[in-house]
Amino acid sequence: MAHFFLHTMIGQVILTVLEALAVLVPLLLGVAYLTLAERKVMAAMQLRKGPNVNGPFGLLQAFADAIKMITKETVIPSGANRFLFLFAPFLTFSLAMTAWAVIPTNDGWAIANINVGVLYLLAISSLGVYGVLIAGWASNSKYAFLGGLRAAAQMVSYEVSIGLVIVSVLLAVGSLNLNDIVLAQRHVWFCLPMFPMFIIFFISALAETNRAPFDLPEGESELVAGFFVEYSALAFGLFFLGEYANMFLMSGMVSILFLGGWLPPIGIAPFTWIPGPLWLIAKILFCLFVFIWVRATFPRYRYDQLMRLGWKVFLPLSLVWMVLTAGFLLATGLLPQGGAS
Amino acid sequence: MMTQIVFYVFATVLVLSAGTVVSARNPVHSVLFLILAFFNAAGLFLVAGAEFLAMILVIVYVGAVAVLFLFVVMMLDVRFAQMREGLQRYAPFGAAVGLVLLAELALAFSHWQVAQDIGSVPHVVAAPGRTNTAALGDVLYTHYIFLFESCGLVLLVAMIGAIVLTLRERPMGRRQNIDRQHERTVTDTLAMMTVPLGQGVAANGGFRRPEESYYIASVPGSYGVTADPVPQGKPVEGPLKHGADNHGGLAQ
C-alpha cells in the first residue's frame, strides 16, 4: 500500500490529490463559516444578534447563502469582455487556494515542501491583484474600473513593505523554506523580537486583502461596490469566497512567519499534547478574529492617507528594521550560516 | 521524457503568447499575453531547476512591472481608426528600424564562435549541498559584490532622476500635512462668538474660522492658502477677509 502511493506514478498522483483535498475541504468549510463568523462576531460587538434563523445559532446560514448565490442569475453587462469578466473571479478564488500547497501544518506536513516556499507565497499573493484589476476593466463600468485601479495601486504599495518584513524574518532564519522558518521559532516566536514588524505585516495584510479599514477598492460610499459592482450570482460568490480565502491565507502567513506555525507556545508537557495542526488552526482563527475585530472598530482610510501610510511610514520603517536586524545578527554572531535547508 | 514534454509545452505557449503580444489589437490583451509569457518563462526556469529565478520572475515582472503596465494601458483611450492612420505614416520608419536590427543580429550571429574548450573554462559552481538560492547569493554578494552594488547605484540614480523629472509644484493641489494637523489645538481653531440677536455672524466675518487657523493646518502654497502666510496679529485686508476691528467678537 505504502509502496503503491510512494513509488508508482498513479499512486503519487492519487496521493497528491488526496493531500490537496485534505487541505482544501477544511479550508472551504472554514471560508464558508468565516462569513458567518464575521457576521456573528460583528453583531456581538455591535450588540446585535446576527444571523440566527437558519439552523441552531444560525449555523446553516452559510449554506443558505451558498444556495442563494448559485441559484441566482449571472448577469453579464453589455460591452463587457465576456471571457475576462468570468475569468477574474475564478482567478481570485483559485489563487487563494493554490497558495495553500506550501503551507506546512506540522513538521514536514506540506503538500509541496519547496525550498523557496516564502517566495512562492509572495508570488501568489502578488498575483491576487490581477483578479481585481481584470474584473474592474472587463466590467466596462466606471465604478468598477476606479475600484480596480485603486486596488492595483494599493496592493502593489503594500506588497513592498510585506516583502521587506519577510526579508527581515528570513535574515533571522537563513532559509526560504517555510518548514525551516517555523522550526527557527522553537525557542521564541518572531512576534516577540520583531514586534514592530509583526504589526506592520498584519496591517499590510489587511491592505493586501482589501479588508477594512483599507477596503477602498470596494468603498461602497463612493464606488457602490467597487471592482465587483457588476457581478452577480456565482461570479460574485467566487469573489466573496476569494476574499475570505485570502484572509485565511494571510492569517496563515502571519501564523507561520511570526506566531510559530504549528509550534506550541512553550515546549512543555500540557502544551505538547495538543497536535501541531490544531495549534496552527488556533493561531489562524485568532488572526481572523483580529481581522474582523479591526473591521468592526476602525473607519475607512482616505485614499491619500492609505498611500502615505504605505510609502512614507511602513516602507522606511521596515527598511530601517531590516538593516538593524542584519546589523544585530552580524554583531552578535547569530547570523545563520548558509542555506539551512 | 516528462521533462521534455513539459519543456516543449512551456516553450510553445511562451513563443505563441509572445507573438500574440505583438499582434493583438487590444493593448490590454497584449499585456495579458505578456503576463502569460512571463509565466511560461518562469515555468522554463523551474524545468531548468532555477526555482529562485522562477519565483523572482513571477514576483518582480508579473507581480509588479506588468501590474503597472496594465494599470497604464487600461487607462489609455485607444481609437482604432486613429491607430490605423498612424500605422500607414510610421510603417516605413518602423520597417527601417526592424531591418537595421535584423542586419545587426545577422552580423552578430554570422561571426558567433563557441570556444572549443567551453567545459574547462572555470566558472562559479555551487558547492554540493547548497541550494541554488544560496549559490546565487554566493555569486552576487561574495564574488561580484562591487559590480552588484554599482548596479544598485545606477538604478538608484535612475529612480531619483525619474522623481526629479516628474516632481512639480502644484499650487492648487490639496495637500495635507499630517504633523501640522496633529499640532493643531482647540484654541487655534475654535472661536466662541457672542452674536447679537437677529444679526447673525455676518458682521463678524461670517462663518470663517479665525484667519490664522488656516495656516496652522495647511501646507503653504496648497489650495486656498497663500504661499506666504499672513503673520499673526497683523491686520488683514481684502474683501473676503475680516478687518482688524471685527475681531472684537472672538474670545481670546
From TrEMBL, chain A:
Broad class of where this protein is predominantly found: membrane
A Pfam family reported for this protein in Swiss-Prot or TrEMBL: NADHdh
Keywords of this entry: Cell membrane, Membrane, NAD, Oxidoreductase, Quinone, Translocase, Transmembrane, Transmembrane helix, Ubiquinone
InterPro entries: NADH_UbQ_OxRdtase_su1/FPO (IPR001694), NADH_UbQ_OxRdtase_su1_CS (IPR018086)
Keyword Transcription regulation: no
Catalytic activities: a quinone + NADH + 5 H(+)(in) = a quinol + NAD(+) + 4 H(+)(out)
Membrane topology reported for the UniProt record: Multi-pass membrane protein
GO biological process per UniProt: aerobic respiration
Residue ranges crossing the lipid bilayer per the database entry: 12-36, 83-103, 115-138, 158-176, 188-207, 223-241, 248-268, 274-294, 314-335
EC id: 7.1.1.-
GO cellular component: plasma membrane
Cellular compartments annotated: Cell membrane; Membrane
MF (Gene Ontology): NADH dehydrogenase activity; oxidoreductase activity, acting on NAD(P)H, quinone or similar compound as acceptor; quinone binding
Known function: NDH-1 shuttles electrons from NADH, via FMN and iron-sulfur (Fe-S) centers, to quinones in the respiratory chain. The immediate electron acceptor for the enzyme in this species is believed to be ubiquinone. Couples the redox reaction to proton translocation (for every two electrons transferred, four hydrogen ions are translocated across the cytoplasmic membrane), and thus conserves the redox energy in a proton gradient. This subunit may bind ubiquinone.
Oligomeric form and interacting partners: NDH-1 is composed of 14 different subunits. Subunits NuoA, H, J, K, L, M, N constitute the membrane sector of the complex.
Family per similarity comment: Belongs to the complex I subunit 1 family.
UniProt name for this protein: NADH-quinone oxidoreductase subunit H
Organism the protein comes from: Gluconacetobacter liquefaciens (Acetobacter liquefaciens)
Automatic annotation (TrEMBL), chain B:
Primary localization class, coarse: membrane
Location of the protein in the cell: Cell membrane
Catalysed transformations (reactions): a quinone + NADH + 5 H(+)(in) = a quinol + NAD(+) + 4 H(+)(out)
Pfam short name (any one): Oxidored_q3
GO molecular function, one term: NADH dehydrogenase (ubiquinone) activity
DNA repair as UniProt keyword: no
Residues passing through the membrane, by range: 6-24, 31-50, 56-78, 90-112, 144-167
Disordered: region residues: 227-252
InterPro entries: NADH_UbQ/plastoQ_OxRdtase_su6 (IPR001457), Nuo/plastoQ_OxRdtase_6_NuoJ (IPR042106)
GO cellular component, one term: plasma membrane
EC code(s) of this entry: 7.1.1.-
PANTHER family (alphabetical): NADH-UBIQUINONE OXIDOREDUCTASE CHAIN 6
Role this protein plays: NDH-1 shuttles electrons from NADH, via FMN and iron-sulfur (Fe-S) centers, to quinones in the respiratory chain. Couples the redox reaction to proton translocation (for every two electrons transferred, four hydrogen ions are translocated across the cytoplasmic membrane), and thus conserves the redox energy in a proton gradient.
NCBIfam families for the chain: PRK06638.1-4 (NF005164)
Family: Belongs to the complex I subunit 6 family.
Protein name in the entry: NADH-quinone oxidoreductase subunit J
Organism from which the protein derives: Gluconacetobacter liquefaciens
